[in-house]
Amino acid sequence: MTPLYHDFAGETVVVFGGGSVGARKARGFDEAARIVVISPEFDERLRSLADGRDGNSDGNGDGDGNEAPAVELVRAAPDADAVGDWIDRFDPAIAVAATDDAAVNAAVEAAALDRGILVNRTDVSGGRDPGSVVVPATVEDDPVTVALSTGGTSPALAKALRERIEAEIEGAGEMAALSGEIREELKSAGIDPETRREAVRRVVRSRGVWKGLQKGRSNGRQEADTVIEEVLNR
Ligand SMILES: C[C@@]1(CC(=O)O)c2cc3[nH]c(cc4nc(cc5[nH]c(cc(n2)[C@H]1CCC(=O)O)[C@@](C)(CC(=O)O)[C@@H]5CCC(=O)O)C(CC(=O)O)=C4CCC(=O)O)c(CCC(=O)O)c3CC(=O)O
Ligand SMILES: NC(=O)C1=CN([C@@H]2O[C@H](COP(=O)(O)OP(=O)(O)OC[C@H]3O[C@@H](n4cnc5c(N)ncnc54)[C@H](O)[C@@H]3O)[C@@H](O)[C@H]2O)C=CC1
């Protein structure tokens, strides 16, 4: 398995099965994706997502009330023979098989692979055909994301490790923004590449900068400037 990040912005995601697993998978997709959940009944979390992810009953956008809801709920219970037609109807980039009916889940997987679209089968672990993907546990401190898989061996462990990493990467988003800014500045200042790399490497490893960032961006920046000066003056 090769972990990759995939941007579903502007794409459609179809989830078969509106239970707790379907709800969790639907929630995990990018806000910029169109998400359609097909199921005879829906978990409470899906019903509130369908009202707008931001809790705004107008939809998911800027409050003008004109935008489509972030999650669309379609009440239906297709059998194994019918799932292909539903996939054709919505033309998704990925289908998620999250019903409690193994035959339906298997049919979703087969129909998706047949059409060359990605599929996430939630009711099996282990070996997969190419195109059949696993959803990792993720931690996000924008723009930093960590994705974690146990190769399907132990999803509970993936969750437990995710909780540990959550604490570990606290502040990483701020550090990414600061160090990204610094590397651009050093590039435009014409600092030679070896010195620039050394400066950036030291900044991201500096306890002082991490601590400074906890107090605010300008504190972090001051600490970083000290580290950079040391490298430039060597
Ligand atoms: C293969 C995979 C396919 C896929 O779904 O993509 C898959 C399959 C299965 N999960 C099952 C059970 C559980 N899954 C969780 C939780 C998560 N499962 C997720 C991913 C994956 N689950 C993929 C592998 C990921 C990897 O490689 O590690 C996470 C990481 C991401 C997400 O779902 O968002 C999310 C944690 C998110 C977070 O919190 O960060 C819990 C924990 C809990 O509920 O507390 C339990 C109960 C405890 C247990 O059984 O371990 C079962 C048995 C069902 C049954 O017994 O009927 C199967 C099917 C089977 O094993 O056959
Ligand atoms: N990957 C994961 O992380 C996990 C996977 N699972 C697996 O996921 C499956 C679903 O788990 P839960 O959401 O807890 O079950 P659930 O029973 O709460 O939800 C299943 C949903 O599928 C719907 N459904 C049934 N037939 C359907 C059809 N023909 N078309 C569309 N929707 C249909 C049901 O109405 C229900 O809303 C289980 O079979 C289990 O094996 C369970 C736990 C975690």
UniProtKB/TrEMBL annotation:
Record keywords, A-Z: Lyase, NAD, Oxidoreductase, Porphyrin biosynthesis
Swiss-Prot/TrEMBL GO biological process terms: siroheme biosynthetic process
Domain Siroheme synthase central as annotated: residue spans: 141-167
Pathway the protein acts in: Porphyrin-containing compound metabolism; siroheme biosynthesis; sirohydrochlorin from precorrin-2: step 1/1
Keyword Oxidoreductase: yes
Region span, Disordered: 49-68, 213-234
Catalytic activity: precorrin-2 + NAD(+) = sirohydrochlorin + NADH + 2 H(+)
UniProt superkingdom: Archaea
MF-aspect GO terms: ferrochelatase activity; precorrin-2 dehydrogenase activity
InterPro entries in UniProt: Met8-like, NAD(P)-bd_dom_sf, Sirohaem_synthase_central, Sirohaem_synthase_N
This enzyme's EC code(s): 1.3.1.76
Pfam families: NAD_binding_7 (PF13241), Sirohm_synth_M (PF14824)
Keyword Zinc-finger: no
PANTHER family xrefs: SIROHEME BIOSYNTHESIS PROTEIN MET8
Protein name: precorrin-2 dehydrogenase
Organism: Halorubrum trapanicum
